[in-house]
Amino acid sequence: MIVSDSMNRLVDDQEGWTRKMFEAAIQMRRDYGPENIYDFSLGNPDIEPPPALKQKLIDAISDPALGMHRYMQNNGYEEVREQVAAYLTERTGGLPFTSRHVFMSVGCAGALNILFKTMLNPGDEVILPNPFFWEFKNYVENFSGVPMFVETRDDFQLDIDAIERAITTKTKVVLLNSPNNPTGAVYTKESLEQVAALLHNERKKGREIYLVADEAYRKIIYTEEPLPDLFKIYDLVISATSHSKDLALPGERIGYLAISPHIPEADLLVSGLMIAIRALGFVNAPALFQRAVAEFQRNSVSIASYQEKRDLLYGTLIEAGFECVKPMGAFYMFPKSPLQDEVDFVFRMQQEERILVVPGRGFGRKGYFRIAYCVPMETIRKALPGFLRAGKRYIGR
Prior knowledge:
Elements: H1 5-32, E1 38-39, H2 51-62, H3 78-91, E2 102-105, H4 107-119, E3 125-130, H5 135-141, E4 146-151, H6 160-166, E5 171-177, H7 189-204, E6 210-214, H8 230-233, E7 237-242, H9 243-246, E8 255-259, H10 266-279, H11 287-293, H12 303-320, E9 332-333, H13 342-353, E10 355-356, E11 358-359, E12 369-372, H14 377-394
Parallel strand pairs: 1-10, 3-4, 3-5, 5-6, 6-7
Antiparallel strand pairs: 2-8, 7-8, 9-12, 11-12
């Protein structure tokens, strides 16, 4: 067999129903035309990057700095890291970030992979609240780590008792994603402080457990309160940031790791990251887009348009009778399936209403389905009658 046994198991585990959905969608587009298919399956932003960022790219290409396309330090351009560090210091109310605490990366995916390659010994455990972005499991297992899944509460908030029960002598990392994919949940400051208290207690036992934060959706929130900042709550924090969502640049693969100034071995970690990024073949983050995003750390695409889409779609789902926790961030919602087998329901929605969503088991939680509403408003409006009909058909509304 051309692929390894481990990869073949992953293909069987993760790609079976995904392939069926993909093939069904292709045939549906042929049968009905792409304008009549309502695809909510991918978290692919439908809006464009800020105009000022586009102009920055035009200027950079029209009048490039000497050597702009050459290699740089593996952790990125010094001047770019300085700008990011200044933003982080401002955001955290004065924590002394410097360029040595910033490592430019190939998005969050690249950031987490080089981080786990650097941090994890075989058998080290990483706690993952469930539901979760499925690739997190792969990132941990890529480097012989062990993902430890802990269920969240019914409202998708953290279950502190479950996290405490999951901590063992092998626990190295608690990986948090807030705002969350797939639920849109924003973890409360109180719950994050409780997690920090747990980890402080473990420190007293001689165990150092790191909080790693995937902050790809940090700027896409709908709450009046600002997002709680883990750097201000706990000291052993490393965050991964991507500009795929806040600047609508998913195809450009640009982001960074931020290492808390409180971590005493930051320099050693960076040295390991430099080896890891070369070993994994990334080498460095894209040169042009490092320079492009440096001055846009305080910017974001319009949140109002996402909130309008959320409100319209959520209101319709509730009217249709679906059970759904209202998302407070990101651009996903995670309703409960009216059928016990959510895969069955997802395929029925495809066939009956031409609506494409993703089964919850693709995020570790059976019985739910994910809707990515980062699509044109017209797509949402045209799909609403289908959601209402599905509610009437399967829920009785």
